[in-house]
Each structure stands twice: as structure tokens, then as C-alpha cells.
């Protein structure tokens, strides 16, 4: 079964500049813009915003 283009794999990079990333999927129909999530960054030891990179 082929992977859907509707739910592509995206990379979330920390805006704190640590270079830490998360990999996830998103629904392109519901979230067409770049996604921002607040997640834990273990390099700095606290929660920070992670922004979708293309």
C-alpha cells in the first residue's frame, strides 16, 4: 500500500537553535500552513516551540 500524499512526513525543528528535531505526519487538508507545536527539547531541558521545516 502506497503512502498517502495527503499525510506527508514532516520534520519539526526547534526554534531555540539547538538543532533538535521531531519527525511526524500531518494532514495537509486540515493544516495547509506550516505547523508549530510546543514540545520538549532535551538539549535545553525545557519545552519550546517546534516549527515545521520543508
TrEMBL record:
One of its GO terms (cellular component) is cytosolic large ribosomal subunit. GO terms for molecular function: structural constituent of ribosome. InterPro entries: Ribosomal_bL33 (IPR001705), Ribosomal_bL33_CS (IPR018264), Ribosomal_bL33_sf (IPR038584), Ribosomal_zn-bd (IPR011332). The keyword Ribonucleoprotein applies. It comes from the Bacteria. The keyword Metal-binding does not apply. Keywords: Ribonucleoprotein, Ribosomal protein. Transmembrane segments: none annotated. SUPFAM superfamilies: Zn-binding ribosomal proteins (SSF57829). Gene3D superfamilies: Ribosomal protein L33. One of its GO terms (biological process) is translation. Belongs to the bacterial ribosomal protein bL33 family. This is Large ribosomal subunit protein bL33.
Amino acid at each position: 500500500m502506497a503512502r498517502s500524499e495527503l499525510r506527508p512526513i514532516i520534520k519539526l525543528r526547534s526554534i531555540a537553535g539547538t538543532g533538535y528535531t521531531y519527525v511526524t505526519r500531518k494532514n495537509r487538508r486540515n493544516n495547509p500552513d506550516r505547523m508549530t507545536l510546543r514540545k520538549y527539547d532535551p538539549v535545553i531541558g525545557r519545552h519550546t516551540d517546534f516549527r515545521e521545516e520543508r
